Amino acid sequence: MRRIPLAIALAALLLVADHAAAQRPSTLNMSCGEAQSLVASRKAVVMTTGRHTFQRFVAQPGYCPLGDYAYPVSAPTRDVESCRLGYRCDSIPPLYDDIFTLRGRGLR
Predict the structure, then answer these.
(1) Is residue 96, in this structure, part of any structural domain at all?
(2) Whole-model pTM?
(3) How many CA atoms lie within 13 A of 105 on its CB side?
(4) How would you write the pLDDT of the chain (108 residues) with one tens digit per residue?
(5) Which domain holds residue 33?
(6) CA distances, 64 to each of 24, 35, 47 (Å)
(7) How many domains does the chain have?
(8) Per residue in 89-104, pLDDT tens?
(9) How many CB atoms lie within 10 A of CB 3?
(10) What are phi and psi of 88, to 5 degrees?
(11) Is residue 14 in some structural domain?
């Protein structure tokens, strides 16, 4: 069996990755309502949010992996500079439990 040269394998991998990124929906090409509907219908979706940026949006906090925290998130769309699209998931806990208490600082 012949080995595929590393350069050819890497080039093929980059082409596949570039094609996947090109297929990702962009918030900049949608109205705020269209982007919100997409997140709501798919429950979780990765969308391009700028020239070199992307974000995973989930419709509800329950769609975050176990142990992750949900944070409200907005993104620019075709018609609105900051459209509330749902939540982002992060493993870092929130600094505040609520508006009056600071987590881990003994201020309860």
Answers:
(1) no
(2) 0.68
(3) 9
(4) 556 676 666 666 665 555 555 589 999 999 999 999 999 999 999 999 999 999 999 999 999 999 999 999 999 999 999 999 999 999 998 776 555 544 444 443
(5) 6-90
(6) 20, 19, 16
(7) 1
(8) 999 987 765 555 444 4
(9) 6
(10) -115, 150
(11) yes
